[in-house]
Automatic annotation (TrEMBL):
GO BP term (any one): negative regulation of oxidative stress-induced intrinsic apoptotic signaling pathway
Keyword Kinase among UniProt keywords: yes
Cited SUPFAM superfamilies: Nucleoside diphosphate kinase, NDK (SSF54919)
Protein name per Swiss-Prot or TrEMBL: Nucleoside diphosphate kinase homolog 5
Coiled-coil annotated spans: none
Annotated CDD domains: DD_NDKH5-like, NDPk5
Location within or outside the cell: Cytoplasm, Cytoskeleton, Flagellum axoneme
């Protein structure tokens, strides 16, 4: 029977994580938990937001009773912003955080980060994006210099792999079989770097003196 190869997919997703002002002293401890949970930290910065910036960040909460206290809390000291990446990053980070109300989290999800580090409904220690689209907006807010390119998926991902990855990889594997090096992985890595068709090249400009 002919074995069916699984369709190529790209399992990368990004989300925003915030370590809030009241638990900034637990930064290393929380980051260690993040990394052990399979996330990559792509970007990280420590900053302090003004009340106006907090109002803009939480604009969707404007008009709610707790809004003034929320902006005062979030601007009360420095915080740490991180861009996290992994398969299904948004949902996995929300699961690791637990319920937004830390008191409830302590009852229902005692091992979640908000249960461990949070205090109450307002001071819940950490923030996570609610959706992929929200994550993109929040990452852009906290890291305005970062360019977020759309992540290819489905047919777009397959087209990208077929056009830009497979031809070079196949040529490299063919050369590897002919060469039969003692350390095939290192040899292939070096070959791919050397033969990368997309690496920048310097164009040689002919000067007027050279032309003469």
């Amino acid at each position: 029977m002919q074995m069916l190869m699984p369709e190529p997919q790209i399992f990368v997703e990004r989300t925003l994580a915030l370590i809030k002002p009241d638990v900034i002293d637990k930064e290393e401890e929380i980051e260690d938990c993040i990394l052990r949970s399979g996330f990559l930290i792509l970007q990280k910065r420590k900053l302090q937001l003004s009340p106006e910036q907090c109002s803009n960040f939480y604009a969707d909460q404007y008009g709610k009773v707790f809004f003034p206290n929320l902006t005062a809390y979030m601007s009360s000291g420095p915080l740490v912003a991180m861009v996290l990446a992994r398969h299904c990053a948004v949902s996995y980070w929300k699961e690791l955080l637990g319920p937004s109300n830390s008191i409830r989290a302590k009852r229902t999800h005692p091992h979640s980060l908000r249960a461990i580090y949070g205090t109450d409904d307002l001071r819940n220690a950490l923030h996570g994006s609610l959706s992929i689209s929200t994550a993109e907006k929040e990452i852009q807010f906290m890291f305005p210099e970062v360019i977020l390119e759309p992540i290819p998926a489905g047919q777009r991902a397959r087209d990208y792999l077929n056009l830009y990855v497979k031809p070079t990889l196949l040529a490299g594997l063919t050369a590897l079989c002919k060469e039969k090096p003692a350390d095939p992985m290192t040899w292939l890595a070096d070959w791919l770097i050397e033969h990368n068709p997309n690496k920048p090249r310097l164009q040689h400009h002919i000067t007027e003196e050279e032309h003469q």
